[in-house]
Every structure is written in structure tokens, then in C-alpha cells.
Amino acid sequence: xxxxxxxxxxxxxxxxxxxxxxxxxxxxxxxxxxxxxxxxxxxxxxxxxxxxxxxxxxxxxxxxxxxxxxxxxxxxxxxxxxxxxxxxxxxxxxxxxxxxxxxxxxxxxxxxxxxxxxxxxxxxxxxxxxxxxxxxxxxxxxxxxxxxxxxxxxxxxxxxxxxxxxxx
Length: 168
What we know:
Strand order of the largest sheet: 5-4-3-6-7
Structural class: alpha/beta
CATH topology: Glutaredoxin
InterPro entries: Redoxin, Thioredoxin-like_sf
Protein name: Redoxin domain-containing protein
Shape: globular
Radius of gyration: 17 Å
Oligomer: single chain
CATH superfamily: Glutaredoxin
Pfam families: Redoxin
CATH architecture: 3-Layer(aba) Sandwich
Domain Redoxin: 38-163
Strand content: 15-25%
CATH class: Alpha Beta
Number of strands: 7
Mean pLDDT: 86
Low-confidence stretches: 1-19, 23-29
Number of helices: 4
Helix content: 25-40%
């Protein structure tokens, strides 16, 4: 009996533990991840307010990096740590907006108290924003040009996703 239970337990742990930060219990399959905005399309949410009640500006002279994430997600945490260590934070012509899927202002403020990232955090407690751009999978990156059109979309469940950004 023990020889049957151990392999079943291991199989269960592997299939539930390799989900990345999906909220479903199925193993993510790249083809199952849908992105609802394509390269060249205009970003839909240009009137956002961050957790400090500041209006997020989508200035014409800046590119924008939108990150859809969750504070509890290890892949999101890794991506934000990579962002913290990157030169992207020093780019004067880049605005970075992190949208917390199913996160409220209080949770995001507490999270950023530990992260101290100089970016805009925006709460999306009901997935209203997230659901406009994807069906599942976080973190998601959407790179916008100066006119707020999509240059690139990425799913950041693997290390070094930021190095895959194409700036032109």
C-alpha cells in the first residue's frame, strides 16, 4: 500500500506545485494562456490612480511598462526583485506601472513598504483591469510605446523575463 501512496502523493505534489501563479489547479499550458491585446493595439486603461492617490500619467514622450502581478505570487515577487536590480528604474523616458491583480490599496502599500520600488502601484481588487488583457497567468508584462500602443506582451513566469523586452 505504501508503494502506491508515495508515487500518487508525489504526482499530486508535482502537478499542483508547478502551477506558477495561476489560481486554477491545472498545470499551465502555454497555449491555454490568452492575451486579449495585441501588438499595435492601444492600451485601454489610460486613466489610472496609484495607491498614493496620484494620477498615473501616460505621457507621450515616455514608453510604459505595465506589469500585471500579485503580491502573493512567487513569480511576481521574483520579477519585481529583478526589476529592483535592473537599470530600467533609471530610465527617465520609461514609466512603470504595476497593477495588483485581486489586490487592494492597503495590501499594495504594505507590499511596497518592503520592496521600496519607485514605480506606480495600482490596485485591481476585482480583476477588472487584468481581465481586459489576459485570462490567466502572472506576472504579465505589456510594453507600450510613447503613443500607448502595445510593442510587446510577455508572461513572466520564468527568470530573466525583463531581458526579453524589445524596446523598438
